[in-house]
Amino acid sequence: MIKLDQFLKLLGIAGTGGQAKLMIINGDVKVNGTVETRRGRKLVSSDQVTVAGQIFKVEDVIE
């Protein structure tokens, strides 16, 4: 498992934890098609994260 904010940093979508937090709080991030506002949301390999229309599969990153 990985936290949503850490996932965004790992992918390079957010340069810092602060940027990731703002993106999440502003509603710019979806998990499995639903806006997610909890930066500590734990992601599992079957989750998909959408940012600016781009979809990222968690399984491609954490496995």
Automatic annotation (TrEMBL):
InterPro entries: S4_RNA-bd, S4_RNA-bd_sf
Molecular function via GO: RNA binding
The species this protein was found in: Anabaenopsis circularis NIES-21
Domain RNA-binding S4, chain residue ranges per copy: 2-63
SUPFAM superfamilies attached to this UniProt entry: Alpha-L RNA-binding motif (SSF55174)
Protein known as: RNA-binding S4 domain-containing protein
Pfam families to which the protein is assigned, alphabetical: S4_2
Lineage: Bacteria, Bacillati, Cyanobacteriota, Cyanophyceae, Nostocales
Keywords (A to Z) from UniProt: RNA-binding
